[in-house]
Write a structure and sequence with these properties.
62 residues, single chain, 0% strand, mainly alpha
Length: 62
């Protein structure tokens, strides 16, 4: 099944402030002593997208 996602203004840029550890976690580095690093980074990105596109909090992104 081949599906494509269309994102209006998908080439626009936005700024999100992340720590170096959060960036490393998103890049695939594992932090055995702190599993919350990756979750924190993903949460910040999700919140930035919701604010930028005025998405309701309980609405899933597809």
């Amino acid at each position: 099944m081949n599906t494509s996602v269309r994102i209006p203004q998908g080439d626009d840029t936005m700024k999100v402030e992340l720590t170096v550890k959060e960036i490393m976690a998103l890049a695939g580095v594992k932090f055995n002593n702190n599993h919350n690093v990756g979750a924190s980074a993903k949460k910040k990105l999700q919140e930035a997208i919701e604010v930028h596109y005025h998405i309701e909090e309980n609405r899933p992104l597809n």
